Amino acid sequence: MAVSGIGNNNCNYLYESTYASQKDGEQKKAELEDFMQKIPEIKKQGYEQLSARNKALGGTVTYYQQSFTINKDGSIQSTVYSVTETEMTNAERMKKGMEERLEKQKEGKKEKKVKEQKVEKEELETKQKKETEALSTNKINISI
């Protein structure tokens, strides 16, 4: 009897294990089907985001391709290939970016210099005020 009891438990375990793996498979299949229905929307959003970013940089997306790979572990990988045309060459774009950074640095240095001059002026005024107060105190002491 003990042997048949172990056998029954093993059968139940195998049945439960098979059921669980089938249930997992069905869930993964349902998730993948949901994802596949969303692919057109995901592609559209990707194109719109890339187009907006390139438009801000002065370029136009002329070709856009996005593909998806579903790995064995169920993860999904997306690959985007695009071609963007701009009126500037890469060298011109790099030069423009460098000039903008240098201009910001110059502005930052000017602002820093103005702040330093303001602080120095305030310190000088405070020092002069203290000296004036000290002189007026000395005059009062002398006149007494």
Average pLDDT figure: 78
User: Which structural class best describes the helix and strand composition?
Assistant: alpha+beta
How many strands, which pairing sense, and closed or not: the largest β-sheet? 2 strands, antiparallel
Tally of DSSP β-strands: 2
Task: Give me the Rg, rounded.
Answer: 37 Å
Rounded to the nearest angstrom, the distance between the terminal CA atoms is 123 Å
* Contiguous uncertain segments of 5+ residues: 1-15
Q: Looking at the chains present, what oligomeric state does this protein adopt?
A: single chain
Keywords:
single chain; 144 residues; alpha+beta; two-stranded antiparallel ribbon; 2 strands; elongated; disordered N terminus
Structure description:
With 144 residues, the protein is α+β, with helices and mostly antiparallel strands. The protein is built from two helices and two strands, in the order αββα. Strands 1-2 form a two-stranded antiparallel sheet. It is elongated and about 100 Å long.
